[in-house]
Design the sequence.
C-alpha cells in the first residue's frame, strides 16, 4: 500500500505515504491519498491530520516511469486527476492538515504541502517544482503559497530547489528540526490543536478557506491544461523518456 491511515485516541489522524524508493506515487496512490484525507475529515472523531512519509523523502511527485511504460494517455490523465483529487482533499479536509516534510519534497509533494495548513520540516528537507525538466507544468499555485511571487517564478523556470530553513523566514514553514525530532514536533502541534473544541476548529478551517484570496482548485486546474498541450505536441514524452530511460515518443505510445 502507498498510503496508510491511523486515527489515534487523541483525535490525531496520521496519514503516511510509503511508496519506495522515493515516494513518487503511482496513479492509484494519489487517489488513495485523497480517499484517506476525505475519510479523515468526514470522521467526527478526527480533530487534526498529520500528513507524513516514510523513506528517503516526503514525496517526489508522480511516477514518471509508470507514465512512460503505459500505452496511450491513461496514466497521464490518471496522474492529473489523482493529483487534483489529492491536493483538493488536503485543502478541503474539514480539519487542519499538518505536513511533516523530510528530505525531498518535489512536484506533487509541493502541491500537497502548499495546500496544507501548517508545515514543519526536518533540517535536510528541500522543496522544488522540477516540472519544466520533464515537459510538464503544475503546482505553481501551491509553490506560490510557500514563497513570494518572484522567487516562485525563479524556482519554477530554473527547476531549482529551496531548503526548508529558507522557508522559515518566509513564514511558510513553521519550524525546522533534526529528522529524528520531526514526528515529535508534528504530533506536538497536532496535540495542541486536538486539545481545542473540535467544533470550533472545524469552523475555523472552513472560515480560513473562505477568506483565501486564491481559489487553489480552479487555479491548479487551469495550470493542468498546459501540460496537456505539451503532451499533444510530443514534447513531454521526449523529456520524460530522457528521465525514465524509455522510448515511448518513438514507439507510437502516444
Sequence:
Amino acid at each position: 500500500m502507498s498510503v496508510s491511515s491511523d486515527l489515534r485516541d487523541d483525535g490525531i489522524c496520521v496519514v503516511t505515504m510509503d511508496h519506495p524508493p522515493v515516494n513518487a506515487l503511482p496513479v492509484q496512490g494519489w487517489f488513495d491519498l485523497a480517499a484517506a484525507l476525505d475519510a479523515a475529515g468526514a470522521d467526527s472523531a478526527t480533530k487534526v491530520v498529520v500528513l507524513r512519509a516514510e523513506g528517503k523523502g516526503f514525496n517526489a511527485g508522480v511516477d514518471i516511469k509508470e507514465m512512460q511504460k503505459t500505452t496511450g494517455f491513461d496514466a497521464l490523465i490518471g496522474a492529473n486527476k489523482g493529483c487534483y483529487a489529492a491536493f483538493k482533499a488536503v485543502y478541503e479536509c474539514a480539519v487542519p492538515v499538518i505536513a511533516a516534510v523530510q528530505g525531498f519534497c518535489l512536484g506533487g509533494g509541493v502541491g500537497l504541502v502548499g495546500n496544507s495548513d501548517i508545515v514543519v520540516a526536518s533540517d535536510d528537507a528541500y522543496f522544488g517544482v522540477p516540472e519544466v525538466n520533464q515537459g510538464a507544468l503544475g503546482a505553481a499555485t501551491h509553490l506560490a503559497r510557500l514563497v513570494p511571487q518572484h522567487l516562485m517564478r525563479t524556482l519554477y523556470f530554473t527547476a531549482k530547489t529551496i531548503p526548508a530553513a529558507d522557508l522559515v523566514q518566509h513564514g511558510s514553514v513553521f519550524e525546522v528540526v533534526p529528522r529524528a525530532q520531526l514526528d515529535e514536533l508534528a504530533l506536538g502541534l497536532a496535540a495542541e490543536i486536538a486539545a481545542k473544541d473540535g467544533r470550533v476548529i472545524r469552523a475555523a478551517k472552513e472560515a480560513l478557506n473562505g477568506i483565501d484570496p486564491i481559489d487553489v482548485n480552479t487555479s491548479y486546474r487551469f495550470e493542468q491544461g498546459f501540460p496537456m498541450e505539451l503532451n499533444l505536441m510530443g514534447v513531454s514524452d521526449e523529456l520524460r523518456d530522457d528521465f525514465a530511460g524509455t522510448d515511448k515518443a518513438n514507439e507510437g505510445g502516444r
